[in-house]
Design goal:
This protein is α+β, with helices and mostly antiparallel strands and 497 residues long. It contains twelve helices and 18 strands. Bound molecules: copper (II) ion. Copper (II) ion (CU) binds next to helix 6.
Length: 497
């Protein structure tokens, strides 16, 4: 049997849709299990990541309660792969494992045996409400008056109530990147850079960066108490919306493949990391080890699922449309990525104030710049992409979105100058990766923005004569004094195509 994952919006996205009603029931069953149960909600959340301090603060952990035996904690917990070419295959196995547990719980409670996780396609521009958090997740109670297991208190969002994802945060430029593996800090690829076992820290691949990271932060947000559940990898798996977000990211990988793009054939990717194997508890409570090679085809056992075709076709159509507007990245890279310039020191964000820094391209209006001009002449086909690297972003707290603008005039608001908007990034996993005692030795995360279009328009307006560009970092919400954001360096790369 092939299970079909359907859009959360197929029947309104509320708890009167059996798809969501039974999801709520399944989540409720799993939440009722103790932390020591391998098929429990909290155990599976901890498989992604666990920070007992944050869990306790939010009521998901009580000191002294029974915990799994140390061997199970070591085997299963704190596995999530981020800033890595394993991001997609690891999460595919993770989402499939909990979907199997949920289906079992749903069947045991008298629900349908063909139940499959819904996905949240927030990028569907043909549906006016697509970016709204589906109502089943914002109701505190079910129709019978009982508490709704899908409701989460700690979704602080970006200040809108109900939560609506900003349109610019869910666009799918990542789908037009045609190579899976990035090769350097400048070109992170559709699926990320080659790494070993990577429990966060480093460079996000393009799909991971957006919409993945930024949607996490748009939902989780941050307030004086700290990050919302979805903003931090150590709490994200506790929020039932996590699984619909990840089913959608998983669907986008399938859409990208269906458009003719290939996954890595490198044995190091196919076989998974040597230092630690990916593993989930199966329905009998035994370890199920898996490799990325076993994750490439969703129809092949043990996976055996697909996505409803109608929406997939539409996504493909819009992918082709976006390729037709000149937004496509190269099918293969034909030359080395070249650094054009960098700013001259760390940038610190604190409070509501924007930080401004200058990136000077080597030698001012140089041959490099002239080459850029050739490629951006109105009729000429693009021959390169320009990529802005925000290197080693560190903070002691996740949950802030930062908008990046070029040459924003004094006194003007970014929201009014979309023509100068270079991109945005969300702090998801920066906290973990900033801990000097952590696995990443405190190197933080790196975000890469494709700024080709905004640079072309500045070029055409003659605003780049000196070979310099002013980079404005504008936090959407005040950055707490006790948790400033530091960007170690901002650099600009040119990637030939
Ligand atoms: Cu995620």
């Amino acid at each position: 049997m092939v299970f079909v994952r359907k859009s959360v919006w197929a029947n309104g996205g509320d708890v009167d849709d059996p798809l969501l009603f039974w999801y709520a029931k399944g989540v409720g069953e799993m939440k009722a299990r103790p932390l020591s149960s391998l098929a429990g909600w909290r155990f599976m959340g901890a498989v992604h990541g666990i920070d007992t301090g944050l869990w306790q603060q939010y009521g998901y952990f009580t000191p002294g309660e029974p915990v799994p035996v140390p061997a199970d904690q070591t085997l299963y917990w704190n596995q999530c792969q981020h800033q890595s070419w394993y991001f997609l295959p690891w999460h595919r196995g993770y989402v499939w494992a909990i979907e199997s547990m949920l289906r079992q719980a749903i069947v045991d409670a008298g629900g349908p045996d063909d139940w499959a996780l819904p996905y949240w396609n927030y990028s569907d521009t043909s549906r006016p409400n697509a970016r709204l958090l589906p109502p089943a997740f914002s109701r505190q109670t079910l129709p019978d008056g009982s508490a709704n297991p899908l409701f989460v208190q700690q979704r602080y969002g970006q200040g809108t109530s109900p939560i609506v994802l900003p349109a610019g945060d869910v666009t799918l430029e990542a789908l037009s990147v045609t190579f899976y593996t990035g090769t350097s800090r400048a070109s992170s690829g559709f699926g990320g850079l080659k790494t070993g076992f990577s429990h966060g820290g480093g460079v996000s691949g393009r799909l991971e960066s957006k919409p993945h990271n930024i949607v996490h932060v748009d939902i989780g947000g941050q307030n004086s108490a700290g990050p919302g559940l979805m903003s931090d990898p150590d709490t994200a798996g506790l929020d039932p919306i996590f699984w619909l977000h990840h089913a959608n990211i998983d669907r986008l990988w399938a859409v990208w493949n269906a458009a003719g793009n290939s996954d890595p054939t490198d044995a190091a990717w196919l076989n998974g990391p040597m230092d630690r194997k990916f593993v989930m508890p199966d329905l009998a409570g035994n370890p199920w080890f898996y490799t990325p090679a076993e994750m490439v085809d969703t129809l092949v056992a043990p996976l055996g699922y697909t996505y409803d075709q109608f929406v997939q076709q539409k996504a493909l159509a819009s992918l082709q449309a976006s390729g037709g507007t000149g937004g496509a990245e190269s099918r293969t890279m034909t030359g080395p990525v070249e650094m054009m310039g960098a700013n001259n020191g760390p940038v610190v964000l604190k409070g509501a104030v924007a930080a401004v820094t200058m990136v000077q391209m080597e030698g001012g209006p140089s041959p490099k710049l002239a080459q850029m001009r050739e490629g951006t002449a109105p009729e000429a086909p693009r021959d390169h992409r320009m990529l802005l690297n925000l290197e080693n972003i560190r903070s002691s707290r996740d949950g802030i979105v930062v908008d990046v603008y070029f040459n924003l005039p004094a006194g003007e608001k970014g929201a009014e100058r979309v023509d100068l908007h270079a991109g945005s990034f969300g702090l998801f996993g920066a906290r973990k990766a900033s801990n000097p005692e952590g696995e990443q030795a405190g190197n933080g995360v790196t975000e890469i923005l494709d700024v080709t279009d905004v640079m072309s328009s500045l070029e055409n307006k003659g605003e780049m004569q000196g070979g310099e560009v002013e980079v404005h970092l504008v936090p959407r919400h005040p950055v707490p004094d006790e948790a400033p954001i530091t960007v170690e360096r901002i650099s600009l790369y040119r990637q030939p195509s």
